[in-house]
Amino acid sequence: MKIAVSACLLGVECRYDGAAKPCEEVLALGEEHVLIPVCPETDGGIRAPHPPNEIATFERALRVMDAEGADNTDAFLAGAQKTLERVREEDCTLAIFKAKSPSCGNGRIYDGTFTGRLVPGYGVAARLLRSEGIRVLDEQQVRVCLAVSAARHPGMPAALLAEASSECPTLSTERLVLRPFVEDDIQDVFAYCSDPDVGPDAGWAPHRTLEDARFFIEEIASAPHVFGVFERVADGGCGPCVGSIGLIGDPQRRNVDCLMLGYALAKQAWGHGYMTEASREVIRYGFEELGLSLITCTHYAFNDRSARVIKKCGFEYEGVLHAVEASPDGILQDAALYRLTAEAWRRGR
User: What is the mean pLDDT of the chain?
Assistant: First the structure.
């Protein structure tokens, strides 16, 4: 993976005070990934050292001022644009930026009074990258995600950096094993995906041939954070595959810190609480190991079974999106929308 990183986190002396702020955890990622150093302030023509800058968060229009009263908004905007161009050129989908910075801050920044007060907000470059679909995390958020992944899956790559399902860890619950699909699962997948009582409720047509199941495994379920659901056997290994579950992009939201929970379950496994059990583990995975701030979920208005799972997992009902898409029979369906924030999930735990 190519990751854009604030240059100061890599040891480059480009902070306002002429110093660097190297982060050991981020530097270590360079052993397995390509780290692309960026500095929006340098790109905007602001040379270190220089007076500290802050965004005037008490104003509606963007204004970046330094401690001596100079307006540097244009320079910050120019630097953010150049950083975006570099990130696009390198095909980065993730950026690790310096926390609290007026350029790179992600979620919390200084408020513009130069009193050390932090408020919710984003730096100029961070907000531009996020608006273009590039995920931004600061070094503190990355440190937490890496630590959780290392503790839960020793020796495995961090889930945050997975680019395919094959790079994701195996998850487990009391009765289930959640792991990436492999070619040997095609028969099991076809068995439940060909059932006309399974696919249409989730929005896809029943599989007609083994090649449909192969396409699902190789093209759809190969995306990161998609897992097969397997019954756990006595020795802790995998029994038969009874479904699939994953975190995928929510087509209704432009929020890079949000993924949508989706799932399907074989009919013979209905009524055992399996999908609620699997969903709770995947939700934990999303908040703790991926650092998401929001997980969403939807179901067609007629799908009462899915509604029960979603409510048991603590999601908050948001409303109905009418005629959102056509089901396999061509009929436009309404969808019930739900959300679960990281804050609400932690309170519920």
Answer: 95
Which residue, 210, 202, 180, 304, is CA-closest to 263?
202
pLDDT in tens, 272-288: 999 999 999 999 999 99
Is 234's pLDDT higher than 80?
Answer: no
Over the stretch 278-329, which tens digit does the pLDDT of each residue have?
999 999 999 999 999 999 999 999 999 999 999 999 999 999 999 999 988 8
> CA 285, 169, 150, 122 torsion: positive or negative?
negative
Q: Residue 211: enclosing H or E segment and its boundaries?
A: helix 210-215
* DSSP secondary structure string for all residues of 80-99: HHHHHHHHHHHT-SEEEE-T
Counting runs of H as helices and runs of E as strands, what totals does the chain give? Answer: 11, 16
Portion of the chain with pLDDT greater than 90, in percent: 94
Beta bridge partners of 53: 66
Nearest to 24 by CA among 3, 14, 10: 10
How far the first Cα of the chain sits from its last, in Å, is 33
User: What's the confidence (pLDDT) of residue 236?
Assistant: 66
Strand-strand pairing, 2-6 and 34-38: parallel
Integer Cα distance of 88 and 82 in angstroms: 10
Give the whole-angstrom CA distance, residue 271 versus residue 170. Answer: 24
d(CA 284, CA 122): 25
Asked if residue 238 has pLDDT above 90, the reply is no
The kind and range of the H/E element at 277 are helix 274-284
Determine if the pTM surpasses 0.90.
Answer: yes
Backbone angles phi, psi at 319, to 5 degrees: 145, -165
Residue 165's closest CA among 95, 112, 228? 228
Which CA distances in Å does 59 have to 64, 71, 124?
Answer: 10, 14, 14
Rounded CA gap, 298 and 310, in Å? 8
